[in-house]
Amino acid sequence: MSEAQILLYNFKDENRLRQIRRYLNRQKISLRMVQPSEYLESLGFLFEIPGFAKNSVFNLGQNFQEEMMVLNGFSSQQLDEFLAFFKENSLPPVALKAVLTPVTMHWDSMKLHEELMREHAATHAR
């Protein structure tokens, strides 16, 4: 699928989320708010990529509280404009963000979160 898509996790500030939704709607970027019950689904399944099936394992409480976003199908211009949107509107940035890759599409949200937390900690330890 070539259409730009985004997964959002744990966005609790309703006003900020409303601004993000409005921006994504204007840009015709599809949005999915991922629920904790879906955290063990592969990212490929969450993005509805053909060939990815629903996970038969039920999530028994694996969770995280941090905001996270995963982008798929964004051109470099769309990505730059989306990140600039946060700055232009004085919205707090999202610390944990990733672009879907051929490797990460097989990961679940918990694995991606763990990796992004590790990278974030390593970056900010310097």
Poorly predicted runs: none
Which secondary-structure class do the elements indicate?
alpha/beta
Radius of gyration: 14 Å
> Overall mean pLDDT score?
93
- Which series of helices and strands comes N to C? EHEHEHEH
* Alpha-carbon distance between the two ends: 38 Å
Beta-strand residue percentage: 5-15%
How many domain modules?
1
Strands, count? 4
Helical stretch tally: 4
**What is the 3D form?**
globular
Biggest β-sheet: count, sense, barrel? 4 strands, mixed
Strand order of the largest sheet: 2-1-3-4
Residue share in helix: 25-40%
Protein name: DUF3783 domain-containing protein
InterPro entries: UCP014543 (IPR016621)
Organism: Blautia segnis
List the helices and strands and how they pair.
Layout: E1 5-9, H1 14-26, E2 30-33, H2 43-46, E3 68-72, H3 76-88, E4 96-99, H4 109-124
Parallel strand pairs: 1-2, 3-4
Antiparallel strand pairs: 1-3
3D structure, described in words:
InterPro entries: UCP014543. Pfam families: DUF3783. It comes from Blautia segnis. This is DUF3783 domain-containing protein. The chain contains 4 helices and 4 strands, in the order βαβαβαβα. The protein is 37% helix and 14% strand. The protein has a 4-stranded mixed beta sheet, with helices on both faces. The chain is globular and about 40 Å long. It is of the alpha/beta class. It has one domain.
